[in-house]
Each structure stands twice: as structure tokens, then as C-alpha cells.
Amino acid sequence: MTTTAISEQQLIEMGQAAQAASRELVRHPTQARNQALINIAEALEGDQSAVLEANRRDCQQANAGGMDPAIAALSEPVATAWHAVAVGERHSWRTPETTRALVLGGGAVGLSAALVLRSRGYREICVAETNPLRRETAAWEKELTIIDPAVEPVEENGFDLVVDAVGGVETRRSASVAIKPGGVIVHIGLLEAEGGLDVRKMTLQEITFVGTYTYTMADFRDTVAALDAGVLGKLNWIEKRPLAEGASAFRDLLEGRAGAAKIVLMP
Q1: Helix/strand/coil for 27
Q2: Disulfide-capable partner of 124 in 32, 71, 100, 112 (CB 3.0 to 4.6 Å)?
Q3: Range of the domain at 192
Q4: In terms of C-beta density within 10 A (0-12 exposed, 13-18 middle, 19 or more buried), how is residue 93 classed?
């Protein structure tokens, strides 16, 4: 895959727009964000012809610059994960080779975080995901250990770095259990606002907890370069669907029926 300067700039501009939109969206509760997905699905059903034509033009522009639109669609979640890993590394005194890492959540951001960790030389990476379809998808990637935390609880005091890509009460509880003394918890997910953290353990064992949100444009440019160079692997866990099936794709994601970490709608 070869990215021209023009197509890369277009992608960076889209990244800036996505970052701005995400900062507005985060101000709303989970129920409202889920309703937004349903509204998008209904809009796709109601005006398919106009959406299909606009998407066709976008894909033509991307292909003209040598960019695979499906890979380009990963730039936003991968940049979010890229930023989270970078923040975690700034707070950790360990090297990648001596760090045991746990990622909670195998969605687009969680799986991307695991791949970013792998690309940076982390040798022990565990991904905890409750959805069996997503576990199957994550298992396609080499050098990752995939577990179902509902069946195989995370190892107590077993990890130096924990990335919570879900942000729920249960995942924060798992992060508190799994983190070693002196370790770092990086919190990306926004599922639930409160609960789950063992503040007593964090205090007594000097555990660092740091929140991260979206990415900087430097992160985004690094992500585009990494995707272009293929350093994150084949990325064959993307599922491509026709744009006409966009409404059902949103509902499948919302209701946990999709095994793919990322669904890309194609014209």
C-alpha cells in the first residue's frame, strides 16, 4: 500500500474531524451514544442512494491516492490505541521486553492496542474479551494470548501494564486485580463512569492510573505511517459489508452479534 502526500493529508483532516466529533460525543451518556448509532442506522436506511453515491466518491478519491479505504478506516481507532500505549509507556519504568501487558476488550481499540504493543516489542500480551465471536477474531493474530475473563479470571498481580479499552465497572475491577505493585493502568474506555477501582490497592502499592482520550495529531500521523508500512500486521480482522447493509451492521455491533473488531462499509 502506497500513500501519496495528498491522500495522507486528506486522511489527517478526517482524523482531525473525527477527534473533534468524539470530544463532543463523550459528553453524553452511554444510552445517548447508543441511540446515536441507532439514528445513524435509520438514516442509512432512509436515504441509501445519496449515502451510497457520496461513499462511492470517497472511495474513488482514496483509491486514486493508493490508499485502501478499509485500511484507512482503521486510522482513528488505531491512533487512539497508539496514543494510549504511548501514554502508558511514559508512566512505566519497565522496557517492553520485561513488561507483561493485559488488554481488556477485543474491539477495534482494544485489539489495536494489542497490535501496537506487539509492534513495539512487547512479548507477553494477553487480551481479555467476553464476546466469543471477537475472541475467535482476535485469535487470528499471532503472539497474543486470548482469554474469556468470565471463565478464566485475570491473573492476580500478574501484569505490569493494563489497558482498559472498555471502561466498565467489571473491567476496572479486573484491572485492579491484575495490576502488579508499581504497575500502570491505562484507561481508554467510557462504558460506565463510576465503580470498580480498588483505590486502597492503588495507594498502598503505588499503582499509576492514567486516563487517555483520542490522540494527538502527531499520534495520528505516526499511525498513518505505521498502517502504510504494515507494521501492525495483515489487519485481516476487518469485515467488509456493502454500505446498503449499514443499518444492520450498526445493530450487530450494538447487540454483540459481530465478530469483527471493525466493520467497514463499502459501496
Answers
A1: coil
A2: 100
A3: 81-211
A4: exposed
Confidence (pLDDT) at 237: 86
Whether residue 221 is found in the same domain as residue 131: no
| One domain, residues 45 and 143 | no
The answer to whether residues 100 and 56 belong to one domain is no
- Calculate ∠ Cα 69-12-263, nearest 5°: 35
Residue 201, domain CATH? 3.40.50.720
Strands (E), the chain: 100-104, 124-128, 145-147, 159-164, 179-187, 208-211, 238-242, 262-266
pLDDT in tens, 134-174: 999 999 999 999 999 999 999 999 999 999 999 999 999 99
Query: What's the confidence (pLDDT) of residue 5?
Result: 37
Q: Which whole number is the average pLDDT over 25-46?
A: 63
